[in-house]
Amino acid sequence: MDDQPVLDPLGALRAPGDPATDVYLTGTVFLDIIFTGLDSAPVRGTESWARGMGSSPGGIANMATALARLGLRTTLAAAFGDDMYGDYCWDSLQDGEGIDLTPSRRIPGWHSPVTVSMAYEGERTMVSHGHQAPPPEDAVPACPPPARAAVASLGRRSEEPAGRDWIAEAAASGTAVFADVGWDDSGRWDPADLDGLRHCAAFLPNAEEAMRYTRAATPREACRKLAEHVPLAVVTLGAQGACAVDSAHGEIAEVPALLVEAMDPTGAGDVFVAGFVTGSLAGWPLADRLAFASLCAALSVQEFGGSLSAPGWIEIASWWQQVKAYAGEELADREALRRYAFLEDLLPTATRPWPLRRAVPTIGFRPA
């Protein structure tokens, strides 16, 4: 929340009568417990000790926090348990990040979903537990609020009628819907599960998801196939960066990934989407949007946690100053200097009196 006044990426575009919300999201909020510093995957029958641990709101909170830290007015509709985990997540998002939780619900007697994430060898393995929020306390309002954009999750988890209806309603009201998708653990990868793409402005799966849904041999082929069903298809390529096909304007773009030492990749895809949505609402060129989203994701994996690892504008500005200072020494820095030159007139020069909230090993510290 302390970072929000530093820069408003949509400041020059705002006008009387605009929606109060820039981005609307709905989904499940988890309490994430993250273990890092594992040399390998846990071995059956043994005990593994992690060198690092953090706790933070997770699930849809990853993307909501990333959007809010980039200065977008973010509204989240979600169910929260009335336990201590729910208190922590609610306070972290509303008070700590300035996210509007007006359409969210606190549900008596319902415990918060929990995910344990173990990061090793540049990837992570997750174990989750939770129960469906009981009706009628549905987290999705019958009519989503007016917003410039919304982020929706497609796939099998959106099969419920409510999961489809709000997307169509939002799109019909003029909201630009950006869609992602989760892993299909059934193994079906049925293209019919992406039927909601007809309401969407953009679709942002990772390479494996894109290839499985399209039956394509390569991520780039999958991106082209997806662009036949949605105006803008973006496929993240991991260490290779990201590619995009804008069928509405006949444009193709690709950017390489930034090489960083990853501590925890949890939530990196969510941070990527947040960066891309920010650039899209601000009207940036396609290649700049891809580059900015990749940068946000690269900065996030260097910190603990999916939500509280998301960078704000001060972190982005600090990275840019470092690139400019050392651009003559490394080829990668010189390439970054050219690719990210669009940031020069955008980034703030202000400093923050204290750092952003980060994931900590536990929750509920008592005041000294």
Tags for this entry?
alpha/beta, 368 residues, four-stranded mixed beta sheet, eight-stranded mixed beta sheet, globular
Low confidence ranges: 1-5, 158-162
CA-CA gap between termini: 23 Å
**Spatial sequence of strands, sheet with the most strands:** 4-1-9-10-11-12-13-14
Q: What's the total count of β strands?
A: 14
Strand content: 15-25%
Mean pLDDT, as a whole number?
A: 88
Summarize the structure in short.
With 368 residues, the chain is of the alpha/beta class. Helix content is 28%, strand content 21%.
Please explain how this structure is put together.
A hairpin with a 2-residue loop joins strand 7 and strand 8 (about 125-130). An 8-stranded mixed β-sheet has the order 4-1-9-10-11-12-13-14, sandwiched between helices. It has a 4-stranded mixed β-sheet with strand order 3-2-7-8. It starts with 20 loop residues before the first strand and ends in a 29-residue tail after the last helix. Helices cover about 30% and strands about 20% of the residues. Helix 4 (about 205-215) crosses helix 5, helix 6 (about 270-280) runs antiparallel to helix 7 and helix 8 crosses helix 9. It has about 375 residues and is an alpha/beta fold. Residues about 1-5 and about 160 have low confidence and may be disordered. The chain has helices at about 60-70, 85-95, 160-170, 205-215, 220-225, 270-280, 285-300, 315-325, 330-340, and strands spanning about 20-25, 30-35, 50-60, 75, 80, 105, 115-120, 125-130, 145-155, 175-180, 200-205, 230-235, 240-245, 250-255. The protein is built from 9 helices and 14 strands.
